[in-house]
Design goal:
Elements: E1 2-5, H1 8-11, E2 19-22, H2 27-39, E3 62-65, H3 74-91, H4 103-125
Parallel strand pairs: 1-2
Antiparallel strand pairs: 1-3
């Protein structure tokens, strides 16, 4: 498994034991990086829009993909393309709750993303 993230807490997470790739940039930048990997034959192992926090409410996102690349996985490609479209639609809403740069709010969103991806990794490692 490979974990792509723009969340510094996830990147530095000592309890996350898999390959990690840090994406400098926004939530959308993470989605684009995941899409690029899918084009190279990786497949999604976690959903890009997981959790109940909407893309216009948080700056952080972490997504798990397969370590090995094979042929193009059309299901993964459709999911990531739909996720990018959903992100773009949400960002048309001018109320971007998570972007007011309050340190405590950003820390909360970082923690939410960390816990979501940690749970996904724990679940995947039990299979």
């Amino acid at each position: 498994m490979i974990l792509l993230t723009n969340n510094p807490k996830v990147q530095m997470g000592e309890k996350i034991f898999c390959d990690k790739e840090f994406v400098e940039g926004s939530y959308r930048d993470v989605l684009i990086a995941v899409r690029d990997k899918i084009h190279k034959g990786h497949r999604l192992l976690s959903h890009p829009l997981s959790g109940s926090v909407k893309p216009n409410e948080t700056p952080y996102k972490s997504v798990i993909i397969s370590r090995n690349s094979a042929g193009m996985d059309l299901d993964s490609l459709k999911i990531i393309e739909d996720s990018i479209a959903a992100y773009d639609k949400f960002m048309q809403n001018s109320m971007k709750y998570g972007y007011n740069n309050q340190e405590s709010l950003l820390a909360d969103f970082s923690e939410i993303d960390y816990r979501l991806i940690k749970a996904a990794l724990d679940s995947a490692s039990c299979r």
